[in-house]
Task: inverse folding
C-alpha cells in the first residue's frame, strides 16, 4: 500500500552561471494523509525545487510521483490544482491595488452575464473560506495597506479558495514577525484538524519541531532522513542538515593579524520596512580571512552594500584604516582600496554585452594610464586586458570578445582579475566559488590565500560551510541582522556549532569582536 | 557575426519599407505604376528634388543623433520634438535679436542658445527622474506635447510677424545669417556639413571619450556601471542634456538653412529622430543612412502626390509599418533576454 503522497527518485538539474547544478539528486519523500510534514534543509538543499515539481511549477528530469495511490504526471500548475495540490509561495504575488477578495478570486472570478464579476457571489465565497480558517481580515481593504502577516493570509486564502487537499507552505515564516508566526502556526493546526495534509518547508529547526508530525531532511538534493518528528532532537536535525565537515586541502599558514583595516561601528540598515542590519560592529585586520556565515536573507547582503556605499545606512560608522568612509561614494571607496566580487556575477559583476577590455576597466577607465583629459587610451586598455587574460588564465582569445560569450567560470575569473589587479586592501567576496568547477574554485582559494599572505584582508560571505571553515581565521555568524556569534577558531570550528548559530538556535553572550 | 546579422536586419527593414510602399500605392492609386515611378525616381529626377531631399535629411540626421545619445544610455528621451521645438524658438529669437551683429558671431551664438534651450528642456526630465523618480519616458513625452502649444502660442502672439498672416510665423531673421545654399535651384545648404561634423563628434565622443564609455556601459547594464563606481544618474542626466541640446540644434540649423523664420504648427523631425535612432541601433554613422532613407520616403511620397493621385501621408504609413517591425524585433530581443534571466534566477 502506497502512502498518500510518494515522490521517488526525483532529479532536477539547472544551469546556473554556465555550470550544471544538480538541485535534486534522487530525492524521495513520503507523506501520510492528514499530517503536517516538515521538509527541512539548508538554503539550496532543493526543498523548494522538490515542492515546485509537486505543484507543477517545475518539471522533473526523472522520478515518479504517486498521489493517492496513482501515478501522476504534473506538467503545469493547473493540473496540480485540479488534483487538489496548492502551494503558498515564499514570495507573495498579490496585486497591491486590488482588495483582499479581488486578489483571492483572481483568475477564477465568479461571473454573471457577459463575464461581469459577480461581486455579491465573490464576497460570499471569500467570506466563507475566511471564516472556515478563522481569519479576521477586512475583505474590502486594499492589499497594499496590509501588513506582511495579513498579506500572507490573503495568499493562503487564495490557495484555499480552490479547496485543495494538500497544501504546501514554502518558508512561510521568513517574512513574519513573532506574533504573526504564532497565528500562522495556529492556522496550520486548524487546517490539519479539518483533514488537510500539509507540507511545511523550512530551515528553522524550532518550527519544524513545534508543528510537524513527520519530517524529511534534504541535503544537497538528496533525502537524508525521514522520520517521526518527536523521535528527533534539534541537535540531530542540525547535524543531518549540514552534514559532515570535509576540510578542503588548502595550505593555510599560521600568521598573526596586523593592524585594523576596516572597522564597522553600530551599523544599522533598513530595507523598506524591515531592519535588515541591526547594530552590527566588527573589525577586520591585515592578514586575515574573515567569514560571515548566515542563511541567505539575514542581512549580510545589506551589510555588504552599506560597506560598499550602494545602500545608505540608517546609522553607524564605517572606517577604512583611520578614515571614516560612511558618506563617501562607491567610487571614492573603491579608490581607497575596497574591492568587491558580487554574488550575481552576470547582472552585477559583469556586463555581458560589453567586451572583455571594457569589463576590466570599469573601476579605473577614468584615470591614467587609461585616460587623459577625458580621452580614453584604447590601446592601453586592450593591452591591460591582454595581460589579464594571460595572468589569470581567462579562456578568451581576443580582448574585444563579448563577456557574455565566456563560460560562467571564466566570467568569474574576469571579475576576480579586475578586482585583484586594482590592488585592494580589502576584498569583499560573496559566494565567490558558487557554481564553479573544482579547478576554478581551487584557483579562487589560492587567490584569497595569497591576499591573506600579502597582509590584506578578505571578508568572505559564503553559504558553503566547508569553504568557510577551511579558509577563515574568524567567523562572524549573522542571524536576523545581528551578529550572534564570533568564533575565533583557535580550537577549530565545529560545523554543528556554526549551523546552530546560523539557524538561531544558539547565541553567544557578550560577544568579543576584537582579536587578541 | 552579430554585426553582419544586424546589418542584414537593417537592410531587410529598408526593403520591407519599400515593398510596403508599393503595396500601399497599389491599393490607393488609380494609376499605381505612375505613382510608384514618381515615388522611387522622383526624388532623383532633378537637381531641385535631389537637393531638397538632401536638405530634408539634415535635421533628421541631427535629431537621429540626439536619439542615439540618450538611447545609448538607456535613457528613453521621447521628447526630442519638444526639445527641438523649444530650441528652434530660442535660436530663432536669439538670431532675430542679434540682427545688427556680424553673422560670424550671431550664428554661433544662436546655435549655442538653441543647444542650451533644447538641453534645458531635457534637463527638466532628467531632474524629475533623479529627484522624484518620474520616468523620463513619460515626462519627456508629456513635456513635448505641452511645449508644442506653448511655442505655438508665442509664435501666434509675442513673437509673431503680422505679415505672415494665416501661415503663422515668426519675423524673418537677418538674411546675412542664412547658411549658404550651394546646390541651386534646391535649398540644400551648408547645414549638411554641420550635421556630418556632428555625426563625427558624437561618434568620437561615444567611442573615445570617457563620457562615451560611461554612457555605453550605463546603457548596457546600469547595475554593473553602479558597481564599478559610475554615478549612473549623473551619466543619465548628461546623456539627456546632450540629447536635448542636439535636438535643439536640429531645428535651428533647418531654419538657418531654409526658411529663415520659424513656422508654427510645423515639423515632426523630433518624432522621426526617435525612429531613426532605433532603426540605426544608436550607431551615429548608420543614422546618416537611415535619416536619408526617411527623407527619401517623405520626399518620394510628396513627389508621387505632385505628379499622380496619392496623398503624401503615405510616407507616414510606411514609416509606421517599419517602426512596428523594428520595435517588434526589439521586443523579441527583450523577451529572449527575459527568458534567459528567468532561467538564471531560478
Result:
Amino acid at each position: 500500500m502506497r502512502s498518500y503522497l510518494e515522490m521517488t527518485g526525483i532529479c532536477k538539474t539547472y544551469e546556473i552561471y554556465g555550470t550544471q547544478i544538480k538541485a535534486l539528486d534522487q530525492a524521495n519523500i513520503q507523506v501520510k494523509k492528514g499530517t503536517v510534514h516538515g521538509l527541512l534543509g539548508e538554503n539550496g538543499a532543493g526543498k523548494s525545487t522538490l515542492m515546485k515539481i509537486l505543484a507543477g511549477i517545475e518539471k522533473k528530469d526523472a522520478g515518479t510521483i504517486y498521489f493517492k495511490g496513482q501515478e501522476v504526471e504534473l506538467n503545469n500548475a493547473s493540473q496540480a490544482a485540479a488534483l487538489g495540490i496548492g502551494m503558498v509561495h515564499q514570495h507573495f504575488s498579490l496585486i497591491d491595488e486590488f482588495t483582499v477578495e479581488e486578489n483571492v478570486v483572481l483568475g477564477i472570478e465568479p461571473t454573471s452575464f457577459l463575464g461581469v464579476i459577480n461581486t455579491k457571489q465573490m464576497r460570499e465565497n471569500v467570506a466563507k473560506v475566511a471564516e472556515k480558517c478563522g481569519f479576521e481580515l477586512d475583505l474590502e481593504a486594499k492589499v497594499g495597506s496590509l501588513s506582511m502577516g495579513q498579506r500572507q493570509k490573503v495568499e493562503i486564502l487564495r490557495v484555499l479558495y480552490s479547496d485543495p487537499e494538500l497544501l504546501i507552505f514554502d518558508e512561510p515564516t521568513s517574512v513574519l514577525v513573532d506574533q504573526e508566526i504564532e497565528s500562522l502556526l495556529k492556522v496550520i493546526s486548524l487546517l490539519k484538524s479539518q483533514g488537510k495534509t500539509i507540507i511545511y518547508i523550512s530551515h528553522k529547526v524550532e518550527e519544524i519541531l513545534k508543528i510537524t508530525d513527520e519530517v524529511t531532511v534534504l541535503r544537497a538534493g538528496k533525502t537524508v532522513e525521514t522520520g517521526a518528528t518527536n523521535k528527533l532532537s534539534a541537535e540531530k536535525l542540525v547535524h543531518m542538515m549540514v552534514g559532515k565537515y570535509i576540510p578542503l586541502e588548502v595550505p593555510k599558514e599560521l600568521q598573526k593579524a596586523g593592524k585594523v583595516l576596516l572597522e564597522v561601528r553600530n551599523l544599522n540598515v533598513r530595507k523598506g520596512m524591515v531592519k535588515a542590519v541591526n547594530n552590527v560592529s566588527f573589525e577586520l585586520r591585515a592578514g586575515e580571512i574573515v567569514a560571515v556565515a548566515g542563511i541567505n536573507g539575514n542581512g549580510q547582503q545589506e551589510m555588504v552594500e552599506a560597506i560598499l556605499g550602494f545602500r545608505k545606512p540608517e546609522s553607524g560608522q564605517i572606517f577604512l584604516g583611520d578614515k571614516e568612509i560612511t558618506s563617501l561614494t562607491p567610487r571614492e571607496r573603491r579608490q581607497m582600496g575596497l574591492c568587491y566580487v558580487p554574488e550575481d556575477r552576470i547582472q552585477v559583476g559583469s556586463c555581458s554585452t560589453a567586451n572583455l577590455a571594457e569589463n576590466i576597466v570599469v573601476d579605473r577607465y577614468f584615470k591614467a594610464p587609461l585616460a587623459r583629459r577625458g580621452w580614453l587610451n584604447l590601446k592601453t586598455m586592450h593591452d591591460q586586458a591582454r595581460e589579464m587574460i594571460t595572468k589569470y588564465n581567462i579562456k578568451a582569445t581576443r580582448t574585444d570578445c563579448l563577456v557574455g560569450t565566456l563560460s560562467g567560470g571564466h566570467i568569474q575569473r574576469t571579475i576576480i582579475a579586475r578586482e585583484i589587479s586594482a590592488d585592494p586592501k580589502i576584498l569583499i567576496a560573496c559566494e565567490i566559488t558558487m557554481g564553479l568547477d573544482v579547478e576554478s574554485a581551487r584557483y579562487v582559494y589560492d587567490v584569497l590565500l595569497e591576499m591573506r599572505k600579502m597582509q590584506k584582508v578578505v571578508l568572505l560571505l559564503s553559504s558553503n560551510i566547508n569553504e568557510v571553515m577551511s579558509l577563515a581565521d574568524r567567523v562572524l555568524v549573522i542571524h536576523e541582522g545581528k551578529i550572534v556569534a564570533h568564533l575565533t577558531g583557535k580550537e577549530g570550528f565545529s560545523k554543528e556549532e556554526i549551523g546552530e548559530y546560523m539557524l538561531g538556535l544558539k547565541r553567544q553572550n557578550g560577544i568579543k569582536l576584537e582579536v587578541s | 557575426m552579430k554585426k553582419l546579422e544586424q546589418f542584414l536586419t537593417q537592410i531587410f527593414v529598408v526593403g520591407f519599407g519599400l515593398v510596403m510602399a508599393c503595396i500601399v500605392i497599389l491599393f490607393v492609386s488609380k494609376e499605381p505604376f505612375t505613382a510608384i515611378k514618381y515615388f522611387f525616381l522622383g526624388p532623383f529626377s532633378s537637381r531641385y528634388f535631389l537637393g531638397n531631399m538632401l536638405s530634408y535629411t539634415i535635421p533628421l540626421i541631427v535629431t537621429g543623433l540626439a536619439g542615439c545619445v540618450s538611447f545609448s544610455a538607456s535613457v528613453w528621451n521621447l521628447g526630442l520634438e519638444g526639445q527641438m521645438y523649444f530650441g528652434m524658438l530660442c535660436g530663432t529669437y536669439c538670431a532675430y535679436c542679434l540682427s545688427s551683429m556680424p553673422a560670424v558671431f550671431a550664428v554661433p551664438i544662436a546655435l549655442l542658445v538653441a543647444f542650451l534651450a533644447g538641453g534645458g528642456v531635457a534637463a527638466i526630465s532628467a531632474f524629475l527622474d533623479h529627484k522624484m523618480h518620474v520616468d523620463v519616458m513619460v515626462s519627456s513625452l508629456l513635456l513635448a506635447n505641452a511645449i508644442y502649444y506653448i511655442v505655438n502660442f508665442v509664435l501666434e502672439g509675442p513673437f509673431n510677424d503680422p505679415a505672415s498672416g494665416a501661415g503663422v510665423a515668426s519675423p524673418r531673421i537677418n538674411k546675412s545669417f542664412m547658411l549658404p545654399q550651394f546646390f541651386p535651384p534646391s535649398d540644400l545648404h551648408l547645414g549638411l556639413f554641420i550635421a556630418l561634423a556632428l555625426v563625427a563628434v558624437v561618434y568620437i565622443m561615444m567611442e573615445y571619450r570617457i563620457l562615451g564609455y560611461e554612457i555605453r556601459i550605463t546603457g548596457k547594464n546600469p547595475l554593473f556601471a553602479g558597481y564599478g563606481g559610475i554615478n549612473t544618474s549623473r551619466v543619465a542626466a548628461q546623456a539627456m542634456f546632450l540629447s536635448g541640446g542636439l535636438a535643439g540644434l536640429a531645428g535651428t540649423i533647418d531654419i538657418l538653412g531654409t526658411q529663415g523664420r520659424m513656422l508654427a504648427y510645423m515639423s515632426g523631425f523630433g518624432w522621426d529622430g526617435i525612429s531613426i535612432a532605433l532603426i540605426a541601433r544608436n550607431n551615429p554613422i548608420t543614422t546618416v543612412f537611415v535619416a536619408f532613407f526617411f527623407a527619401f520616403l517623405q520626399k518620394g511620397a510628396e513627389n508621387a502626390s505632385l505628379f499622380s493621385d496619392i496623398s503624401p501621408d503615405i510616407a507616414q504609413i510606411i514609416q509606421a509599418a517599419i517602426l512596428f517591425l523594428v520595435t517588434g524585433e526589439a521586443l523579441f530581443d527583450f523577451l529572449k533576454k527575459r527568458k534567459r534571466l528567468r532561467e538564471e534566477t531560478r
